[in-house]
Structure formats: C-alpha cells, structure tokens
Task: structure prediction
Amino acid sequence: MLEENRAYKELLDVYKEIKIISSVESVMYWDNRTYMPKAASAYRGEQISYLAGVAHQKRTDSRIGSLLQDLDAKNIDRNDTTVVAVNLREWWREYNKSVKLPQELVEERSRTAVEAQAVWIEARSKNDFAMFKPWLQKTVDLCLRTAEYLGYENEPYDAMLDDYEPGASTENTAETLTKLCAELVPLIKAIGEAPRQPDTSILKRNYPIEAQRSLVSEIARSIGYSFDSGRLDETTHPFCSGLGPSDARITTRYDENFINSALFGVIHEAGHGIYEQNQPKEHYGSPMGDFVSLGIHESQSRMWENVVGRSNAFWEYWYPKAQEYFPHLQDVSLDDFHFAINAVSPSYIRVEADEITYNLHIMLRFELERAMSRGELKVDDVPAAWNEKFKEYLGIDLPDDTNGCLQDIHWSGGDMGYFPTYSLGNLYAAQMYEKALDDLGDLDADFRVGNFLRLKDWLTENVHKHGKRYNSSDLIRTITGKSLSAEPLVKYLKSKFEQLYNL
Amino acid sequence: MLEENRAYKELLDVYKEIKIISSVESVMYWDNRTYMPKAASAYRGEQISYLAGVAHQKRTDSRIGSLLQDLDAKNIDRNDTTVVAVNLREWWREYNKSVKLPQELVEERSRTAVEAQAVWIEARSKNDFAMFKPWLQKTVDLCLRTAEYLGYENEPYDAMLDDYEPGASTENTAETLTKLCAELVPLIKAIGEAPRQPDTSILKRNYPIEAQRSLVSEIARSIGYSFDSGRLDETTHPFCSGLGPSDARITTRYDENFINSALFGVIHEAGHGIYEQNQPKEHYGSPMGDFVSLGIHESQSRMWENVVGRSNAFWEYWYPKAQEYFPHLQDVSLDDFHFAINAVSPSYIRVEADEITYNLHIMLRFELERAMSRGELKVDDVPAAWNEKFKEYLGIDLPDDTNGCLQDIHWSGGDMGYFPTYSLGNLYAAQMYEKALDDLGDLDADFRVGNFLRLKDWLTENVHKHGKRYNSSDLIRTITGKSLSAEPLVKYLKSKFEQLYNL
Result:
C-alpha cells in the first residue's frame, strides 16, 4: 500500500511542518490587519518574510524533489482521485512551481507587500496616487519577474492567474467574462431606465454598531459558521483567514449609517469561513485538506452572500429579527427592504457594488492588470485608464482615486491575477446552486423557517470535504456534469432582476 | 575593531534570527491569551512547541559555542560595559547555561510543567493538596537536578534564583528581605490597630467597564505608554508581552464592581510596557536591547503602580477626571479615595495584597522554597509550614490550601526562584525613586499637573536604554551609588503609611 510507503509518510511530515510555519504566518497576518500597533509594521515585515523564507526553503528542499521522483508523482494520472494520488499530484505541482523561484525574489515579495500596504493605507486616505505609484510599479515588476521564472503558455498573465486559479487560462477567462459582461451591460441599462426603483435610503438610516454586530453574528452562526472555531473582528479591508484546522476567522467593517457593509460583508466572509471550517481536518496540512482555488472559495462566499443572503426567502425569516434590532424598520415592508438590498446601480467601490455591476468592476481590473502585464499600460496611466473604463462600463465619472484605483488592497499586497477569481466565484456559485436545487428541491422553504444547514451540508458534501481532490474546472464538471459557463449566472441574474424591476 | 569581527557579526545574525522566532512565539501566546477561538487550542500547542523547539535548537547549536570560544567570550571583563563586551558576556552566559543541561532534562521539565499545571488547576479548585503533592515533589526534584547541572556557589537555590535574577545570591537576598520584613511586621500590626481606617467600599461601587477602559487608557498614555507601539486588551490573567521592538502589548481584566483590578493592573502593566518600549531598538535581538532581569522589570511596573499611581499628587491630577467618568465619586473626597486605594490589610491571596503585606507573601514563599531546596522542608509539610508562617507574618489563619499554598501557578509551571523577584522589584523601585527625587527635585509638583514624562525619561536614561549592560546589582549601584538595601523601601513605606494611618 502506498499509504504505508516510507517516502509518502516522510512527505506528509514535511508538509505538516510547512503547514505549521505557514499557519503561524497566517496568525501574523491576521494580527497585522486587525490589532497590531502601527509602529510594529516594519518588524512585522521582517517576521513574516523570515517565516515565508523558511517555508519557501522547506517547500523547495531538494529532498522533496527526490521523494516525489521516487514516487513518480509527476506522472500521476490526473483522473486518479484517491487521497494519495491527489496529494502527490498537488505536491508535485506546488514543488515544481516553487523551485523555479529564487529565495531572494520570494523574500522581496513579502517584504514589499508589508511595506506597500502601509503606504497604500496612507495614499488611499490622502487620495494620493503619486505616493503609491512607485510601490505599484515595484509590484508589477515583481509579478512579471515571477511570471518569467514560472513560465506560461501564452502570456505572463497566465502565470499570475494560475497562482490563484490553478489550470485557468487567461484566454478562456477573458472569453467567459466577456460573454457575461455582454449580457450584463444592457441589463444594467434596462434596470437604470426602469420606472420601478427601490428606495435605498432605508439602508442608510442609523444602524447602531452594537446591534449590527449582534445581528450579523446571529446570521453567521445560523448559516453554519462556528464561533468555537472562529471569530469576527474589525478591519479596514475585510477578509477571512484560516489559522489552523479549527481556527478560521472572519473580519468586517461597520458603518453606522449603512447596514450593507457589515451585513453582507459578514455573510460573505462567513461563507469563506464555513468552507475553511469544513475541510477534512484529518488531512490538514496536505492538499486533501486544502481549498481548491480562490474561485471556488469565492463561490462559497458569493452563494451565501447573494444567492441566499439577498433572496426573499432568507429575509422572510430574518427581517422580523432585523426589525427588532432596528425598530425604525417597522415602517418598511419586507418587499421594500428586499428590493433595496438588491438595488442595482453603478457605484464607485467594488466591495459595495451590487450583484450585477460587481462583475464589471472585475472586468475593468482584469483588463487593466492584463494590459500592465503585457506592457500595454504604464503605471503612470493607471488612474486615467481606470476612470475611462469605468465610465465606459458603468456610465459614471469617478470623483478621485480613493474611489478609483486606490480602493483595493490587492496590488499593495502584491496580488495580480487575483481579481478575476471573484467573478469566477459568481459563475461557479450560480452553476452549483442550480444543481443544489435539483438535488435538494425547494430550498426557499428551508430558508423561510431559518434552516440553512441542508444547503451547508450539501456544500460540505460536494465541495468542502473534497479538499483539492479536483481542480476547479474538474470540480464544477463533477458536481454539475457540465463545464463552467456564463449561462447559469446570466439566467439567475436575469430572472431575479427582471422580476424585481418589473422589466 | 571587534564590532567588525566576522565571528561577532555572525553571532549578531544568529541571535537576531532566534529573536525573530521567539517574538513570533510571543505573538502566538498573546493571541492564545486574548482572542484565539476555543477549538484552536490543540493546534496552537503544536505551533508554539514547534517554534520553541526550533529556537532551542538554534540557541544550543555548537556553532555558537565555537564562535564564542574564538572570541574568548568566557573571559570578558565583567566591568567592561561596551556594547560588544556586554553582548559577548551575556551570550556566553546563556549559551554556557543551556549546554550544561541535558536535552532529556529540558524536555522532562517542559512536559512536567504542562502536566503539573493541569493537576494544579484541579487540585486548587478541589482544595486538594495531596493531589498536587507528587507534582510538587517532582518539580522540586527537577529544579534540584537542574541546579546540580548548572552549578552554584553556596546552595542550589542560587542556581534557581539566577534563572530569573542573574547574579543575585540567595544569602544577600535573604538578608535584605529579612531586614525588610522585620520592619514591616510591626508596621502592619500598628496599622491594624490604628483608629483611622479607610472606607474601601467606595472601590466596590459600580464602575461601568467602558468608562474604566477610557480612564485607564488615558492614564497609561499619560505616563508614557505608547499606543502606537502597544495596545490594551482583555484576558483572564493579565500580562505584558513584547512582540517586537515597537510592539509591547498590555492586558487587563475588568471587574465592574471593583475599580482596583483594571486601574492598578493597567498602570502596573504599562510600567512593564514602557520598559519594553524604551529599550534601544538598534540592539533589538541582542543582550544590549534586552531587559536586565525580572526584578528590574518588576521595579518599573511597581514604581508606576505604587510609588506614583498610589500617590496623593498623582490623584490630585487624576481624581477630578475619575469623578467625571464615575459621577458617584462626586460625594467622595480626594483624601478618602486616596486612603481607600492605599488600604493595608492582611489577606490570603498574594496578587490581591496591598503594597506592604505583599512583601510578606513573598518572604513566606522564598523561605519555603529555600528550605525545600536544602532538604529542610519536606513537600508533605508545605501546607503546615505555609499556614504557620502566614499566621506569624500576617496574623491571620488560612481557611484552606486553595487560599494558601495552592494559590500560585509558579510551582506547577516549574518555576522555583521566581517569587523573590517581586519583592526585589519593590526594593529596586524605592531605591531608584529616591535617586530620581535627588536628580529631578519635586516630582509631586509634576504629577499634580499631569506631567509624568520627566520621571519616565529619567527611567529611560538610567534603566531602559542600557539593556543588559549591567546586571541588576551593578545597575542599582551605578544609578544610586549604593548596593541594594531595604532602607529606601522601608523609609518610603513608613513615611507614607504612618501619615495615612495617623500613627
């Protein structure tokens, strides 16, 4: 039996050790973004880059190479989905990529990320793109150098994308996103012209933060997020992070005069957290206990945030409770509230965008990143290019860079190729949900009585428990019997919003 | 120049790396004790013991030994207080100690600490000394075995004390503490019989936690604790922890019906934090950037907590602000409040003891530890000896062992020789403060107008900035021109409390 093989066991131990180091690194990041004192930033950079360096060294240790060679990991059949085969295949994939990167580059990337993030925070608050520009340039250069070391099929962006969505190609992604956006631009236009419009001012009433905290915690718990293995904290740019097999923490930001940020932010992050909390613990530290890709991760958050959390059935259960927390909602009907939280309207900030326009925010970033990676767009010209595309897709002008190209943390964190996975998440979510309805029947009936665990268990069964058994394309095919397509998302969005807006 | 020496530089790098690992470990502990979710506990244990193992391996690497040998670190003149000499001397000291201990003993000590602590928690809650007895015996045996490996001048307790207070001798410590207690026992008796007594019930009114949090934060900031390089969080057993050169965090616990815990707890921890924040950053990771000893660390917290924080002048400034936070204090005079926070009264629990009786709690533990280490006291007889001494020093009977010899965590953690450093802290603080008054003149005048920074800067200049340049005995002599003596503390306590109690 291969499980008994000494080489395989040694690999399990090595990767368990690497996971300890990288999970410690995650704690350092979490702290960095929640509670760390300001002045600690520089040394935190040293701590993190040291850990990243040690982990990188271990990941690229030639001992792994020779163990994998002994086990012929390179030639594992992609269709063999047994535990050992999956682990060997993924270890090989990771090892092969990581040995291509020089230690010096890896360390510079993590150091740059920490420093650039501190600058970005200030630049954003001061609306000062010039302050951030050299760091963006450095990030682009580092990402391109990385891509050259890794190699790619058609263009450097393939290598960048592959970091977040293994196996995805820039060209296919561009094609699917183009199809999606081609359907969405006219839909957005029709919605903008519709006579029936929601009153979104009700979302901008006074929502005391303590009450928000209680409501969103209750909701997160109800959909299956465990606070015994997690927690909810405040941060500037919300995220979810797995810090251990029983430690997946989520974060949010509260706006006293806008319920959406924390409400849908937390449902979103809880979706990520539920995925982290339900991966098989016995495989923690090996690919079978890890998530598939950012796109699949995002499908979990988007499904809970949008498909479930913005559905009428969900609010049939939660709205009376929300009215208790915020008595001023007593004069607002469930329908009006439901319409308001589904308002579609072009806006500046990606993380606050509605379910439809969100995808155009992504398209814009994807195109800009791709252009930068091809040398077709200079860092100097990013603000202008951003504003121009924004106008083209969403029809409105941006007031400043704080609301434009300085809004996202990603570039300051060294992440290029990450953005498309958000829209891929929407696409996977819609396609999976279609199948969940086939399998489980009337989920709305569950939601109306506050039962969200049948869906959660279906997701655990079909997605979470498999770890990296399948890559994202294979997973979506395994679950739904079809390759990823724009169709289910387009269908879902059209049906929902044509009804809401009476089109 | 020795600074240019390649071996010296290599040592600096090695120890810088060890410091990165141990500072990461500190972040993991801090998180463990503040925010970590419950279910994460087991894996956190794995993460921390991995980091501790790596650091231990690096600390005892024979490469360090041969570099130190090349530099003849063993024979550095103790009076040479240049940076290089200090670092070499302290590195040698640490390395030489660590290689003397067999790995098997080190591991047994940490294993025993974990197991003994679990038993101690149960024994304490059940008031069952018999249950804890075998573990105390094992701890004493392990500490004695350790002392034999390390060597000592006069008695094994020297080696134990040396772990926490390098260079201190058992005999000198005993002599100073004996003198101190000889003066305090009659003082406590006189205080107990004094007709004028404080009304401490005012400290047990309702103190809303949010207001406590604001007040104690304001105070901590005013005495020089930096929130840019630190933060204040809640925990069960308050502590201060240095997580980096610009990251020293403090913790507290709030009791809504007792102002003292958080109020003096935070001033105390802030004193530790100020020490951590003002060690020379350019020497972070080497002895010149590290604290002297537990006693000196404690002198910083005790000076701010007691000498400053319980002084009349301090409250002349802060009391009107406290009355704003807690309007029910409007009917309490400053004098009554000041008297209440300085109430002296024998009590069972060390951590809740007042400024005077605290030292007798320590004397008792010190004498028992020393007697055990000499084989003059059997573990079986600890409860009886404890109770007898307690009656002798504090004049009251103990109800049970939970309130007696089972109250402290130290023995179960394998720490023998730690207790005396608490009283040494009080002694150092009083002797330093006497000199600060000589140098700075009327500090009370500063305090009355809320200026605490002249004292803080004096401490930085005389203590913080020297790192481990001097050991504690040398430091106190360098600052005050005299060896440590009981006199300043006795004088300070007598003058303060004779006045307060009208003796």
Notes: The mean pLDDT of chain A is 96. Chain A is about 60% helix and 5% strand. The first helix of chain A runs from residue 6 to 34. Chain A touches chain B at residues 17, 20-21, 23-24, 27-28, 31, 35-40, 42-44, 46-47, 50-51, 226-231, 233, 243-247, 249 (CB under 8 Å).
